[in-house]
Amino acid sequence: MKTDLRTNIKAIIARAYVRVVGANREPSWWLTETLLPIMSTAAYVFVYKALKAPEEYVGFVILGGTMSSYWIFVLWTMAAQFYWEKEIGNLEIYMIAPISRMSLLLGMASGGLFLATTRAVFIFLAGALIFKVNFAIISLPKLFAVFVLTLTGLYGMGMLFSSLFMLYGREAWHGVTLLQEPVHLMSGFFFPVRNLGFFVALGASLIPMTLGLDAMRQLAFEAGPKSGFINVNVELGALVVLCILFLWVSKHALEYMEKLGKRDGRLTLRWQ
Amino acid sequence: MNLAVETFDLNRTFKLKKAKNKKENGNNDGKLIALEDANIKIHQGELFGLLGPNGAGKTTLIKILATLLLPTSGRALVDGIDVVKHPERVRKQINMVSGGEHCGYGILTVRETLWMFSQFYGIPNKVALRRTDELLKILKMEEFARTKIGKLSTGLRQKLNFMRGFVCDPKIMFLDEPTLGLDVQIARDVRAYIRTWMKKDLERTVLLTTHYMAEADELCDRVAIIDTGKVLVCDSPQNLKKSLAGEAVFRIEVPLDVNGMEKFGQIAGVKQFAYDHKSHLGRTELKFILEEESAISNVTESLSGNGSKIISLSKMEPSLEDVFLALVGRGLKDEN
């Protein structure tokens, strides 16, 4: 048991190493992960300004842009990772290694977190400074807890998606493509989710980002509580439940999909 | 002696798309039998070869043993552990290298790549790096230690993949066509390393699949010949070749444009017949296994009667390829 834990920790570090070292060896990512993403976020700010929307909406947009870095990362880098590994011939090697599949994903996620955080920090700082966002933080510990829980929930969700990618490859790719934009809308990345109506917001709350963003808006802006969907403490509790749920489901989904792949002979079959 | 691998009536079928199945197999039952009642026993410390043409079921068997594929029925034990019931325990004892494959990420160096894969087996850093350096030296890759793998040639990347399997120092190693596509020198290095690695620890076991009969002959303690999913025979290369001792093997080279070759198998005294078109040489190589040496006169007469010019004729010592021909009725390179 002790040996297994040590091996899994080593696997997490080794897999994270690729991402961190890779980022340092390809400096061009600084441009693609910092300057370019701020542009799309800025576009929403200008739309709101043109429409003379309340000033706090600028802050909401910057927060949404910051958090969208993690969503994009979870969806396109983490979830799709097993698909890419299969295509380049690494998946077979990973599958015969005596380690948990979640450790591999956690390693990829930890390494990728570095890139996603760089992107997020840049959007946050540049956005806040350029557009002079006023923050009124109610509780920093709570804000931090919401952020961590949102990321944990999202990563759990990413692991769940990765099980689909592991087996279905390109088919899962189409599914995730379909998810990207609707989730941007439903999760209220750039506006309070309450505006979508209670039931739509409730449905969208299955995605940890929805509750996380809503709670963060309530905790970081003066006008946040007024536009909140539900009470922050309830959102915190719901996020805890979602984290446990996604991690548990993704663990079993990974095991199930691996078994299915081994049964059907699709686990290491490429170009599908 | 302890068994490293043991299989009991192992079967594996794949579901096929109907159209593909009908076209390729002449039936429409939607199944392809990749492995049929395979029973093999590999002893600890043995270098065991699994020989057969492409599509014979070699990779299927190795993937089942490596816990990548479930058998349709039957049972397989690796180091005494059931591969279906306890795959996680099997994985601690094994590693696998598939020829023609690459591994890792172009952004990492050769040394980093080997270190990374060693970590998935919990190998301490110092040990991993020492083994890495040893492998780099033995396999003549030292000068590429700090080269990003994205900059390596295809052959060197395959060599790296081979090293990746050994850096973890498994108890049982599965090598699936490890020299596939490698140039002569690299293939020679790889074969030499396999033997050296085996000698260093008598508990190490290798299951090697190949369709290069000479490779199996050179390396393996015992070989099993497999075709269309069935294990046909299993013995040492020497014993298998001895089984053809009473028969005569002849190789005849004729021009490429010989007609009516299908009749050559029916010549009196011919036990088995195979051919291999060597277009680049402008010749066809005919191989005959004869019941007795004197039957060669029937063959030459038949060729002359067919208007074929004989470019060369030689009597050969039986090889594993001839054993395959005698067992299956066709050569390894024949399409049907």
Written account of the structure:
- The complex is a heterodimer of chains A (272) and B (336).
- Chain A contains 11 helices and no strands.
- With 272 residues, chain A is mainly α.
- In chain A, α2 packs across α6 (101-130), α3 (56-78) runs antiparallel to α6 (101-130) and α7 runs antiparallel to α8 (170-186).
- With 336 residues, chain B is of the alpha/beta class.
- Helices cover 32% and strands 28% of the residues of chain B.
- Chain B has helices at 18-25, 58-65, 87-91, 110-119, 125-138, 154-167, 184-200, 213-219, 237-242, 296-305, 320-328, and strands at 3-15, 31-38, 41-43, 47-51, 73-78, 81-82, 94-98, 172-176, 205-210, 222-227, 230-235, 248-255, 270-278, 283-290, 312-316.
- In chain B, a hairpin with a 2-residue loop joins β10 (222-227) and β11.
- In chain B, α4 (110-119) packs across α5 (125-138) and α4 packs parallel to α6 (154-167).
- The longest helix of chain B has 17 residues, at 184-200.
- The two termini of chain B are 39 Å apart.
- The chains are: A mainly alpha (272), B alpha/beta (336).
Beta-strand share of residues of chain A: under 5%
Low-confidence stretches of chain B: none
Number of helices of chain B: 11
**Oligomer status:** heterodimer
Helicity of chain B, as a percent range: 25-40%
> What is the beta-strand fraction of chain B?
25-35%
Question: Span between N and C termini of chain B?
Answer: 39 Å
Unreliable spans of chain A are none
Sheet with most strands of chain A = none
Please report the two chains with the greatest interface, counting residues with C-beta closer than 8 angstroms to the partner's C-beta: A-B, 32 and 33 residues
Protein structure class of chain A: mainly alpha
Helix and strand pattern of chain A: HHHHHHHHHHH
Tally of individual domains of chain A: 1
Strand order of the largest sheet of chain B: 7-8-9-4-10-11
How many strands appear in the DSSP assignment of chain A? 0
